[in-house]
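During the reporting period the student researcher (J.K.) took over the structure-prediction task from the postdoctoral fellow and processed the backlog of single-chain submissions. One of the processed entries is reproduced below for the supervisory committee.
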Amino acid sequence: MSNSTTNLIDALDQKFAAIDQKTDTHLEGLLWSKPITYWDYIQTDALLNLQTQRTVLPDEKVFIMYHQVNELLFKMILWEIDQLCHTDKPETAYFTEKLGRISRYFDMLTTSFDIMGDGMEVAQYMKFRNTLTPASGFQSAQYRMIEFASTDLINLIDYRFRATIDRDTPYTHAFEHLYWQAAGKDHATGKKSYLLLAFEEKYKDEFLRFMEEYNTINVWQKFKQLPEDDQKNAELISAMRHYDYTVNITWVMGHLNAARKYIDSGQGTGEATGGSDWKKYMHPKYQRRIFFPALWSEEELKNWGEGL
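J.K. obtained the following structure tokens:
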């Protein structure tokens, strides 16, 4: 028996002894286990059976798969944010690396809109979209969690109400004034649409817990906890700005432009499937979604989302 094999067995003995297990039992189990395959490891069969159409129109499957890919990427983004924000005193290089990963995922999302913009027939979309009502991409819980985990809550509050809300405001009150609430309410009566009511029934409690968890450890708070010299690191600041701009302008405008092609095609009502005022909800110049306002100049803030 080679020294490397002996060392491996010794390491296994230590590992299993720590949990009151016998190494021989686990080694014997290896005799009867099947070799791993790609399809078992990736769960390919399960993944490829999640595309359930509501119509017979072929391009609906494109629409479903595209949004499922988006949700998988959102999950990857949240995974990276979770590691960064739950690391005590992350070093600048680690911080920058994580932001780079997160931004690459959003860059991928941004450049993918041609798949929806040019990858479906308008006539087909205008037919199958009616079977989606009142569901909407507005109801992506993971995207909301990305926002909560990225910035202080005040930066997600409807711009009209920010002066009345601070860090001591109850989460339930702040929740009612988040920027996306306006897209799900009747402006005259304040009545919430079914789109918003169903979304809140499913996720509100989870959102409130998430908001509280990330109140002091979101990406911006982790940045402010770095030593002052590290907060001036040019590479890190560039990564922060790139992430902010990509999420709140580039990605949003890509989504908006893809939606315009179909919703404003002249073949429909011009309304989103969930009934939201989608242009004002999505366009960055209206809600001014900015994760890290302190990293932008007064002129940049003033012109946020203009001329796009």
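The committee noted the following: The chain has a mean pLDDT of 91.
J.K. will present the remaining backlog at the next meeting.
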